[in-house]
Amino acid sequence: MITRAPAPEGHPFDEVLSGWLFREAETRAVEADSFQNPGMLEVERAAEIWSTPEGTAGKSCETCHGDVSESMKGVGAHYPKWDKDANRPINIELQIDKCRTEQMGAEPYKFDAKDQKAMTALIKNQSLGEPMSVDLSQGDMQSWWDRGKDTYYTRTGQLNLSCSNCHEDSMGNMIRADHLSQGQVNGFPTYRLKQSALVSLHNRFRGCIRDTRAEFPKAFSDELMALEVYVTWRGTGLSVETPAVRQ
């Protein structure tokens, strides 16, 4: 597992660090052991969903993609990607919904539905250990990166805080009995022990924004998709840990 990597050009740090390095040894041990990692129960459940037909087309994910461990190997390490049809970046959750509606004749998942988080974790888990990278040469990805960067450094809410105030200025400091990390996203969906559940990336984004006492945007909105592009780029070179385990 790659928990340290040289930062990409233009990054504020010289080295990118996984949230793994900011956790206690006990939490690391739970994540590293696939039999103890509680997030793996959802991954295993999603493997059943993968082969279960849904929708009017009578298809499952397996119908088109075959064995998930083969067809999805390495895929999750390179999202978000540019989607020509939508003319915007999409993440794995939106790609799953696109397949459901266009190929299976099924309804898209509601945001943060249990099955949506489980399926996203299943696909990301097939890239376990592979370094993350985002292709900014696709479509108009660079402008979305720019927008995401602006969002990252913009103070919001009654507390007048930005993402950078915590994950750059205060990195390593204690907050609510935990250490502030660089805010990397290579472990999402992440199993949060205090919630006893998988937590999606956009749920975490919105939670942080809520904590600044600002009105948070809708999941998968342009603002949050741009932020996902930028923050994923910030972790370039770190390996996928999904499902990571955090307090």
UniProtKB/TrEMBL annotation:
Substrate binds at residue 204. It catalyses: L-cysteinyl-[SoxY protein] + thiosulfate + 2 Fe(III)-[cytochrome c] = S-sulfosulfanyl-L-cysteinyl-[SoxY protein] + 2 Fe(II)-[cytochrome c] + 2 H(+); S-sulfanyl-L-cysteinyl-[SoxY protein] + thiosulfate + 2 Fe(III)-[cytochrome c] = S-(2-sulfodisulfanyl)-L-cysteinyl-[SoxY protein] + 2 Fe(II)-[cytochrome c] + 2 H(+). Its main location: periplasm. Binds 2 heme groups per subunit. It is an enzyme of class 2 (transferase). Heterodimer of SoxA and SoxX. It is found in: Periplasm. It holds the Pfam family SoxA-TsdA_cyt-c. Belongs to the SoxA family. Its EC number is 2.8.5.2. Heme c 2 binds at residues 163, 166-167, 208. NCBIfam families: thiosulf_SoxA. Its cofactor is heme. One of its GO terms (biological process) is sulfur oxidation. One of its GO terms (molecular function) is transferase activity. The gene is soxA. GO terms for cellular component: cytochrome complex; periplasmic space. Heme c 1 binds at residues 61, 64-65, 99. This is L-cysteine S-thiosulfotransferase subunit SoxA. Keywords: Electron transport, Heme, Iron, Metal-binding, Periplasm, Signal, Transferase, Transport. Coiled coil: none annotated. Residues 46-132 form the Cytochrome c domain. The active site is at 208 (cysteine persulfide intermediate). InterPro entries: Cyt_c-like_dom, Cyt_c-like_dom_sf, SoxA.
